[in-house]
Specification:
By secondary structure, the chain is mainly α. The chain is 57% helix and 3% strand. A hairpin with a 3-residue loop joins strand 2 and strand 3.
């Protein structure tokens, strides 16, 4: 990560250096790199250099290597022989594939959870909805995303199906990275999105498996009641036929383009007030509700 390194990621490495000296745990290195990927500090096709990360954190290379292997298994990194590991390009088609897998998982989780949910479980979900509302009040999209994803993780746990929980744990990083859940570029009413999660809790509280399953499936597939303005924009018929552009997906950076965008690629929307509409960018994945 020499001249053109990602400034945001390098700053994160510097601030975490002392903590990693005390706890040489590959899981913590994994979380750090994964967060840099999903938040955009490490952008598509950027190279992840194990030796540089280890040096900047002041740790041995072994835990970094293990973390990189795990991220590759989850599909967030791609290993290119004799070149290294690169952040996987996000495509709208990949995001749609992820949603297609998410929908039946959410349907099953809600159906089972509606029959097993306890008052303690409902209190936990209510608290997460409260966190979403607080995130909107604080204009913090990142906090909203964390509470949103934890909400769906908890519903899976309430289902009581250990295989479903394991499948969700494998899928969740890809859902987050592909913005197929808790999309930070959502162009709609964030207050209403928090309230929508409150409605889902109400359906679980009622204990009707069929209604809960249908609502969670619609939510996962982007068919819920909270509109995303990007849907209308995407479906609008252009007055002029769009010009064909060359396909860029899957391009691997040149050998001297080691790790490394000139500036962090955090979504601009994540820095804008959550209570207002979050503007879509040209990098946005296919619009879906979180």
């Amino acid at each position: 990560m020499a001249v053109n390194e990602s400034a945001g990621f390098v700053s994160t490495l510097a601030t975490n250096k002392d903590r990693f000296r005390r706890t040489l745990i590959s899981d913590q290195v994994y979380e750090l790199i994964r967060q840099a990927i999903v938040e955009g500090d490490l952008g598509p096709n950027e190279r992840v250099v194990e030796s540089e990360i280890a040096r900047r954190l002041g740790v041995s290379q072994a835990p970094v290597r293990e973390a990189v292997k795990q991220l590759a298994r989850e599909g967030l990194l791609m290993h290119v022989p004799r070149r290294g590991n690169f952040v996987v390009e996000i495509s709208q088609q990949d995001a749609e594939y992820a949603r297609q897998v998410r929908e039946p998982l959410e349907r099953l989780a809600a159906s089972l959870a509606a029959e097993r949910v306890t008052e303690e479980n409902l209190g936990e979900l209510d608290a997460l909805v409260a966190r979403m509302r607080a995130a909107v009040a604080e204009n913090d999209v990142s906090l909203f995303r964390d509470a949103d994803i934890e909400f769906h993780t908890v519903v899976g746990r309430i289902s009581g199906n250990p295989l479903l929980v394991r499948m969700w744990e494998v899928l969740e990083p890809s859902l987050r990275a592909l913005r197929a859940i808790a999309d930070p570029l959502f162009d709609g009413d964030w207050h209403a999105m928090a309230d929508e999660h409150g409605r889902l809790v109400h359906l679980l509280r009622e204990g009707d498996p069929d209604r809960a399953a249908e609502a969670f499936a619609d939510h996962a597939a982007g068919r819920g009641p909270v509109p995303d303005a990007r849907t209308a924009k995407r479906n609008a018929k252009p007055t002029v036929a769009p010009r064909k552009t060359a396909a860029l997906a899957g391009t691997v950076p040149a050998e001297n383009g080691v790790a490394e965008a000139a500036a962090p690629r955090k979504a601009a929307a994540a820095r804008k007030p959550a209570a207002r509409k979050v503007a879509a960018t040209g990098k946005a994945a296919a619009p879906r509700e979180s």
